[in-house]
Amino acid sequence: MKLRPGQKLHSAVCDAQVVVVKAPAGEVELGCGGAPLLDDGQEADGAATLDESLGEGPLLGKRYADEEVGLELLCTRAGKGALTVDGRPLLIKGAKPLPSSD
Amino acid sequence: MNLLLLLDMVAAGRGDEVVVQSGDHRLTAAELLAAAWAGAEAAAGTSALAYVGTNGLALPIGLFAAAAAGVPFVPLNYRLTEDQLHDLLAPLGDTLVVADGEDQAAALAARGHRVLGAGEFVAAARGAGPAAGDVPAEGEAPAVLLYTSGTTAAPKAAVLRHRHLTSYVIGTVEFGGAGPDEAVLVSVPPYHVAGLANLLSNLYLGRRIVYLAQFDAPAWVESVRRESITNAMVVPTMLARICDVLDEDGEGLPSLRALSYGGARTPATVLQRVMALLPDVDLTNAYGLTETSSTIAVLGPEDHRAARDGDPDASARLSSAGQVLPTVEVEVRDPLGDAQPAGEPGEIWVRGEQVSGEYAGRDASLDDDGWFPTRDRGWVDAEGYLFIEGRSDDTIIRGGENIAPAEIEEVLLQHPAIAQVAVVGLPDDEWGQRIAAVVVLRPDTVLDADEVRDFARTSLRGSKTPDVVTFADALPFTETGKLLRRVVQADLAAAT
Fold it and tell me: Which percentage of chain B shows pLDDT scores above 90?
C-alpha cells in the first residue's frame, strides 16, 4: 500500500485505528494482528482472525515507527492486534520528555 | 493530521473527565467533542469561523467546531475597533463571527456580518446530542488564521495548517502524559499563538484547563490558589505584576509546580524576582513565533536552577531562549545567506514540520529547502543555546555598526529609577542612524538625560550610548508585552 500523511487506517481483527504521521517513500504492507490494515471506508470481510502470537496491540496516543522504511503511525484507538510493516513488528517510539512550555 | 482527531483521541481515552473550565462552567472531553460537531452546523457553508472575545468555552468549542466544519478558525483581538475588525473580516468572505461583547456583536451585525453571541453559540453547541460525524484525519487545510503582532509592520495573517499544529503537539508532548491532579491556568489571550498552543498541548497531555477571561494579577494569583493550579504560562509583563502581588501578601503559590514564560524578552531583574519568590517552581523560558506554531526553543528548569546556584555558564544562558526542540532545526545566516559558526550573530532561520511561514494572500516565505527566516537576530553558542538579540528590523545601524536595542535596554533597566525603556534608531545625516532612548521613570524619582547617558556609558561603549534621551509617562505595548517600536519611533520622529 502507498501511504500518505494524515491517512486513517483501521484493523480488520480488532478495534485498533491509526493515522499515518510519516509515510515511507515506497509501497509497504501494513498489518495488525496478522491481517492487512484497512483504508478508511474499507470494511473487514470477517475472514481474518487475530494472531495473538505477534505481540501486544497498540495503545491510545502512542507512536509506532519503523526506521528502515521511514514510517510513523499514531494510534487513535487502542486494539489487540500487533502492528507490523512488511512482516516486522513496529516499535513504540519513546519520546524524551521536554520541559512544559505551554 | 487534523486537530479534531486530537480531541477525538482524548474523548476516546477519558471522555468523562473535565478538560476545560471557565468560571463555573465545565466541559468533559466527550461534551467538548459533541459541542464541536454542533458548533460546526452553525458554521456550515461559511468560509471561516471568527472569534472576537476573551478566554472562555467559546474558544475551544469554536476552534474544534471550525475543524469539524472544515473552515479556518480566526481569533481576533477584541480590543480592536469595529472598523479594524471589519477590515480584518472583510477579506475572509462569508464568515460566522462569534463575539462575546454585546455592543461589538451588534455593531458587526450592522456592518453586514453574520454574528452569533458567544453565549448563544456555546448554549446551542452544549445543548446538542452526542457527537456524530466522521472525524477528518487530513491535515492539509488551514486550521487557524492568526494575525501576527505586527510590532515592526502592519499585522498580517499567518496560515497555520492542521499538520503544522498537530506536528507541534505530537512532537512535543506525550498523550495523557499529565498526572491526574494537574491543572493549567490559561490567561494569555485567545488571539495569540500561545493561547492556542496552551489549549492543544494541555488537552493532549490530559491537564484540566482553567480559563481566566483576561489577565489580572490578583485574579490570577487567587485562581492558582483556589483551583490548585499546577502549571501556567505567562508573558513577561504578567510575570512582573504577579511578583508585585506575591511580594505584598507573602503567601506564595504552594500548588504551582511549573511556570513557563515567553512571548517577549524577559528583563533579568524580573526573572531574578521570580526565582526568589517561587524557589520550588520549575521555570521554563519558551521562544517561538506565530509562524512556527508556537514554541521552537526552550530553556528548562535545570538551566534555571544551575543559574540560581551560581554556575557562571548557566547564568549567562539565563538570557538565552534555550535549546531548539529536537523536531526543529536552526541556522544563523549572514546577509549573504551563508550559515554562521557558533557565537557569530546573524538572522535566525528555522525548519521543521511545525513551521508554516505562510501568510494569507502572499507567497510563502520559506526558501527552496523549507527554511523560514524568522526576522529575529541572534546567535547560537557552542552548546546549542540560542540567544535572541531582537527583530532584524529593530537593529540600529549607527556608523556601520549593528546595535541591538535590547542590549542597551537591558543595561538601562538596571538603573533603580528606570521602570521602562525603549531604544530605537532615528535617521541621522552623519551616522545613518542615531540612538534614541525613551525612558519611563519609577514614581517619585528624578533623573535627567545626562545621568541616563552616563549610566549607559559605564557598561557600554560610547558608540552604544544613546545620543538622545527623552522621558515619557508610558510606552506602547501589545497585549502580550511586546514593545510597539514603530509607534515609539513615529512619535519621536514627529517630535523632532
Answer: 80
How buried is residue B130: exposed, middle or buried, by Cβ count under 10 Å (0-12/13-18/19+)? exposed
| Residue B256 pLDDT > 70 | yes
Give the domain B395-495 fold.
GMP Synthetase; Chain A, domain 3 (3.30.300)
CB contact under 8 A, B233 and A102: yes
| Total residues belonging to chain A | 102
ipTM above 0.90, yes or no: yes
| Cβ pair A61:B174 closer than 8 A | yes
The CATH code that applies to domain B3-319 is 3.40.50.12780
Task: For chain B, give every domain's residue range.
Answer: 3-319, 395-495
**What is the pLDDT, as a whole number, of residue B153?**
60
B176: cell is 495523557
Q: Give the closest-approach CA distance of B186 to chain A in angstroms.
A: 9
Domain ranges of chain A: 8-92
Mutate to test the interface with B, among A4, A37, A92, A101 (most CBs of B within 10 A): A101
Q: Cβ of B26: how many Cβ atoms within 10 Å?
A: 14
Indicate left, alpha or beta for B494 from its phi (over 0: left) and psi (-120 to 50: alpha). alpha
Instruction: Give me B148's grid cell.
Output: 501576527
**pLDDT at residue B149, rounded to an integer:** 64
Is the pLDDT at B401 greater than 90, yes or no? no
- pTM, full prediction: 0.89
Place of cell 498526572: B179
Of A5, A74, A101, the CB nearest to B286: A101
174-203 in chain B: CB under 8 A from chain A: 174-177, 184, 194, 197-198, 200-202
